Amino acid sequence: MPSATLISAQSFLVDRIVPDCEVIHLPSADVPGGILKYRIAVSAFRSQERPRRLKFVPAQNITAPDGSIIFDFRHHSPGNWAHLLTMHLPLLFHISEQLAIPWQQALILMPKSAPRYARRALAMFGLKTLFTDDIVHGAGVEIIADPWQCFWPVRPDWATTHSVLSALHAAIAREDRQLPRRILLLRRDTRTLTNSADIVALTEPLGFEVVYPEDYTPAEQAAFFMNAEAIIAVHGAGLAPLLYRTKNSAHMKLVELFPCGHITSVFRFIATQTNTAWVGVRGKLRPEYVKPAYRLSKPYRRFSLDNFEVDPRSLMLALRKLEIAA
Fold first, then answer.
1. What is the signed CA dihedral for 113, 116, 122, 127, rounded to 10 degrees?
2. Dihedrals phi, psi of 240, to nearest 5 degrees
3. Is 26's pLDDT higher than 70?
């Protein structure tokens, strides 16, 4: 993963007399792989996800339809839009191709509580699904991925095969809504911008239109990343369709907005794999963020979903670095 830039809010942390924005150099880094094994076997597939039930109900036994090949994706939070699009589905696309399993034969097991948008994403590719927390008997693919993220370096190739892109472009062609070329991708429930009015006022004159992903179909969300020339996005699941850009896609520019409690390199890495120029912008620090950030023996997760404020100055620096603003 090549080096990149993260820009912080204006503060006295750069100069105690003249406040300024920190421009942080993120060094290049290796993204490790791992071991991926899979085989077709007759088995009893049990959910690894904890069912969301008010009271315990023993799992029942279900037999898969004859001719189906089971892919049990009831693990690693498949109800999360980003996990489903960037982990589970690329794994399905790769394994089905390697084992010559037609998509029509694949039966995708998902938790009974899987949200509507996850169901719509699977339907977009025409996949057969079974939403259940029960034990399912039949022929299926047993998968060992160690670690689970071991295929990060190669998953863009798996998500942009001819069959995947054909299904995706067919779904996009069925939509008729005009989509913006410059997008400000915001969130409503968590990680919302507390000064969104300031950010809209800054970006609107540059041609950016506010978009909330949940207001659009999965196909339209994929189209954002295939057709847009520039996107400013709050870090989160709304960025998942970035993976479905090909190496030959038209060059795109991406500014990723982070709350201090959730800085990751996930989409920075995908950007480098999909002909996308990337700059990160970190929101303002709060006093309660500081001490836990230096407790290196514990995960830094407590503030992950906090709403946050982005300094318009730091965002403007990012836009200038990407030559979106003068």
1. 70
2. -55, -40
3. yes
Read off the tokens for 166.
């054909």
Query: Which of 160, 308, 321 is CA-nearest to residue 236?
Result: 308
Count of beta carbons in the 10 Å neighbourhood of residue 57? 10
Interior/surface letters 252-287, b for 16+ CB within 10 angstroms, e for the rest: bbbbbbbbbbbbebbbbbbbbbbebbbbbbbbbbee
Q: Where are the domains of the chain?
A: 4-30+179-321, 35-151
**pLDDT one-digit tens code per residue, 132-155:** 999 999 999 999 999 999 999 999
Q: What is the pLDDT of residue 59?
A: 79
Residues 52-91: tens digit of each pLDDT:
655 667 779 999 999 999 999 999 999 999 999 999 999 9
Residue holding tokens 């039949």?
Answer: 138
Look at residue 297 and tell me whether its pLDDT is greater than 80. Answer: yes
* Span 4-30+179-321 CATH architecture: 3-Layer(aba) Sandwich (3.40)
